[in-house]
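FIELD: query
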Amino acid sequence: MLQPVRQSSDITPAQMALLRDADPDDSKIAAYLARGEVWVSPDKSAIAVIQARDDDIYEIMNIALLPDMRGQGRGKAFLAGLIAMVKARGGRAVDIGTGNSSLDQLALYQKAGFRITGIVAGYFDGYPEPIIENGIACRDMVRLRATF
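FIELD: result
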């Protein structure tokens, strides 16, 4: 587990680029940055924006890891640290959404205990540029939840 650290200062340009890697829509990033908390890994290789939905339900609005750090278990460890932080706050569930074409992320989240709760059809259709991952057009958001 990578223990996340809450960041109280403004995000850096490098962190913004990392957030854009997970979500290329600047207006959406700005909206959840305004309402959420920014958490980073101790070595700054990972970043997440988390928002409280209810007293005991949180949502990971964005989570990203530097490309050269992927495939080493660091994303899994950072996600585990975020879940531990939510549990320590008395949370009972964490929600997350990802694109239908984000196959690695879907596998990661399900291996971490998240279950699919729904699909938001057409969620990504309004994005400024089309998103293509793994040769698949990203059009729908897959919603997942981890309950503890």
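FIELD: remark
Residues 1 and 80 are 6 Å apart (CA to CA).
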